[in-house]
Write a structure and sequence with these properties.
The protein is α+β, with helices and mostly antiparallel strands. It folds into five domains: about 290 residues, Rossmann fold (3-Layer(aba) Sandwich); about 100 residues, Immunoglobulin-like (Sandwich); about 90 residues, Immunoglobulin-like, CATH 2.60.40; about 130 residues, no CATH class; about 80 residues, no CATH class. Helix content is about 20%, strand content about 25%. α2 runs parallel beside α15. About 5% of the residues have low confidence.
């Protein structure tokens, strides 16, 4: 601080040097989004090894691909991961069907949608006697879908199967094993000609939620739960002169359903007109003209459903204990209470909250999930003393469990227990309750993993911080991995998820590792490698494609959860681990590919590609996994989704994209000191020195060929100064990987003596 001399003598003052340092950010923090067996949902947690992942999220679990990917990540060099758990929804019941009145074999038309909604489907078949063509019309509400089939006898059995199984997006056909002959197919359709039939038998599973759409104070709910409603698209569209329309669209509708609206009263028609939707509004909304609410087309935001169910146990009265996260993992958690080491002095700490004495303080003993008949051998956790009573104090059981327990949560309100109905004797825990022979004493039950998952749940809501947007709650991640889940709808769901994830990664200066689509594997089996193209991801913007890395084929590994049988897995977790290991050994500017990029734990590749097949995929920006003698299984490509030769993009190569992300993120964080500083030469020189030193260090390590940093009057003019801007130009020429090593060998003619 400045010195104010008052007496003769020596004064000392410390002066800031003015120099600042750029601290490079991490480059390989990998975010994983998907299902796990346990752990908090939509809450990003950082883990530093696989053991920590096992403790918090249950570790590798059968049929949960993301858990395998995390194990692969740490097994291939990864050191820091951010886990976002998403949960599947409750069972959504069964589809509807129409049994056709034919002789053996019996045929059944079955809806592809599940739930009560499927009972609204009608089918009608007509036949043109001259051409022999069948016209099959499916009706759902006010929407119709028509399919015209050519004369079936002209089709081979495989063609008949394809024609009938793919009748429409609404209905498929099921029958006995083997291929369906044309004669049988004709018999099946003839049974429907002139006999319209309604599908029946669809049941919505208990616990299934109805999708909700919201816009401001307007809420529209689907009346019928089930996955069909997940694909609804609802919007309010202006039609001029104060008129509007509620437009309801769905993939099953040939034409969107449109309901004219002139006022809030007309919205009441929605229920009667569609039979599928119900509308809720607030008094504040209806107090204003509809025109003030709908300025332009307003899409109603889909609120994702699906959260599984947490195991729970009612202890007494209003006190309910639940597992800390949804899933069957919590079934069998045992709980007992005791008063060890609880004396009158305990209540003295909370006397200011009005707790009179220690009679309602207890210790909670928590036992790891117990199998039927198993006697607890020791508490995994003991939380206490906790207060069981109505006063909202920090020591109350719901607050204490939320802060200290990995296994349990309590729901408020809570009444005083007085020892009544509390499970006190640990030896009685897990035994059959004489009052309830179905459930066991002191044990949680009812947890469900859920068996429905949609792209909505995985992508989540940006406003609610769910799905991939839960990563808004974490400071930094560099790589994102979302392995395909068997509960998702195949390529359609994955392209939707990867499209949203790619845009989010671009915003967060991260890279998405997109797993191969199922259709690519089918194309490879037919040797149609020209059909394996990045366009299948439907990511059009070139700036977004720069943040995506994809590969082919998938890998085979031994699965301990299936008796060490060899199974096919996505390799995204392995590749993310290789990214991390390469960053540590060589730097983020080194391509994570080549003979150093070996894949641990891989027994085989789903498809073994030749050099020529490799060349076809490399030219379009699909990176190939190869298996070479002696070298083994390696990553053999390092291009982004913008890496097709035809695009000639600056960010063709992955290490260039990742190095740029590293520089941008590091400088973004380090330069914040300059905000509100005097915009003059002292600040400019500080920025030049700080950034120049950082870039010089990277240059010495071999990150680029050349660079320059400029911040002076030429970059920041008086016009900029008047508007509060300081401009720094950082330019660099990054090193790029040597993809093609060309050796030119020439044979020299023998020299003759002169």
């Amino acid at each position: 601080m400045p010195v104010s001399p008052t007496y003769p003598g020596v004064y000392i003052q410390e002066v800031d040097s003015g120099s600042r340092v750029v601290s490079g950010v991490a480059t390989s923090i990998t975010a994983f989004v998907g299902r796990t067996s346990q752990g908090p949902a939509n809450t990003p947690l950082t883990v530093f090894d696989y053991g920590e992942f096992q403790k918090l999220f249950g570790g590798r679990t059968r049929d949960l691909p993301m858990t395998y990917a995390v194990e692969d990540f740490f097994g291939n060099g990864g050191s820091q991961a951010v886990i976002v758990r998403v949960c599947a929804g409750a069972p959504l019941g069964s589809p509807s069907s129409v049994d056709l009145k034919t002789d053996d074999p019996k045929y059944t038309l079955t809806t592809k949608m599940k739930g009560l909604i499927s009972t609204l489907v009608f089918v009608n078949v007509t036949k043109d006697d001259k051409s022999g063509h069948y016209t099959i019309t499916f009706t759902l509400g006010s929407a119709t879908s028509k399919v015209v089939l050519a004369t079936l006898p002209d089709l081979a059995p495989e063609g008949v199967d394809m024609a009938l199984k793919g009748l429409s997006d609404v209905v498929g056909v099921s029958y006995g094993g083997g291929s369906l002959e044309a004669a049988d197919a004709t018999k099946m359709l003839d049974a429907l000609v002139g006999k319209p039939a309604q599908f029946a038998g669809g049941v919505t599973g208990a616990g299934a939620k109805t999708p909700m759409f919201i816009a401001g104070d307007l809420e529209i709910d689907a009346k019928i739960a089930g996955p069909w409603a997940d694909d609804l698209d609802i919007s309010l569209v202006p039609k001029g002169a104060g008129a509007f329309s509620l437009v309801v669209d769905h993939p099953d509708f040939m034409v969107p359903y449109e309901l004219p609206l002139a006022s809030w009263d007309d919205i009441k028609k929605v229920d009667a007109e569609t039979g599928l939707l119900t509308v809720k509004t607030t008094p504040d909304a209806t107090a204003h003209p509809l025109a003030t609410f709908v300025k332009k087309g307003v899409p109603l935001t889909r609120v994702p459903d699906g959260s599984g169910a947490s195991a729970a146990m009612r202890v007494y009265g209003p006190l309910v204990l639940t597992a800390s996260s949804p899933g069957v993992w919590g079934n069998g958690i045992g709980v007992s209470f005791d008063k060890r080491n609880i004396g009158p002095e305990v209540a003295l700490r909370f006397v200011d909250y009005g707790i009179p004495d220690a009679s309602d303080f207890w210790n909670v003993n928590i036992y790891v999930p117990l199998k039927a008949g198993q006697t607890p051998s020791g508490a995994a956790e003991t939380i206490g003393p906790v207060y069981l009573g109505p006063i909202d104090a920090p020591c109350r059981i719901d607050h204490m469990l939320a802060a200290q327990s990995n296994f349990l949560r309590a729901r408020a309100p809570i009444a005083a227990a007085g020892g009544k109905d509390l499970p006190l004797d640990p030896s009685q825990i897990n035994k059959t309750d004489p009052k309830d022979t179905v459930h066991r004493i002191g044990v949680l039950f009812g947890g469900q993993d859920g068996d429905t998952l949609s792209s909505d749940i995985v992508v989540g809501s940006e406003s609610k911080r769910t799905g991939i947007y839960a990563l808004e709650l974490t400071d930094l991640f560099n790589i994102m991995v979302i392995p395909p889940d068997p509960l998702l709808g195949g390529d359609d769901d994955m392209t939707t998820i990867y499209g949203a994830a790619a845009q989010y990664c671009e915003k967060r200066r991260a890279v998405l590792i997109a797993d191969p689509l199922d259709k690519w594997g089918i194309a490879a089996k037919k040797s149609q490698f020209d059909r394996i193209v990045p366009d299948d991801y439907n990511i059009g913007a070139i700036t977004t494609r720069r943040s995506v890395f994809t590969y082919f084929p998938r890998v085979k590994k031994l699965d301990p959860e299936y008796g060490n049988r060899e199974k096919v897995f996505s390799a995204s977790g392995i590749i993310a681990g290789i990214f991390a290991a390469t960053d540590v050994r060589r730097g983020v500017w080194k391509a994570p590919a080549g003979i150093e990029a070996g894949m641990n734990g891989v027994t085989n590749l789903e498809h073994k590609l030749t050099d020529m097949q490799n060349g076809i995929l490399n030219q379009v920006g699909v990176n190939v996994l190869r298996d070479f003698p002696i070298i083994g299984k390696v990553v053999w490509g390092s291009r982004t989704l913008a890496g097709a030769d035809a695009l000639s993009d600056d960010y063709k190569y992955l290490p260039v994209r990742r190095l740029t992300n590293y520089i941008e993120e590091s400088l973004f964080r380090a330069s914040k000191f300059a905000v509100f500083e005097p915009n003059a030469e002292p600040l400019w020189s500080q920025l030049r020195l700080m950034i120049g030193t950082f870039m010089a260090d990277l240059s010495r390590q071999g990150a680029f060929y050349d660079y320059f940093v400029r911040c002076d009057k030429s970059t920041t003019t008086q016009f900029d100064i008047d508007r509060g801007r300081v401009n720094v130009i950082v330019a660099f020429a990054p090193v790029k990987p040597a993809e093609f090593v060309i050796l030119t060998i020439q044979q020299l003619a023998g020299q003759t003596a002169a």
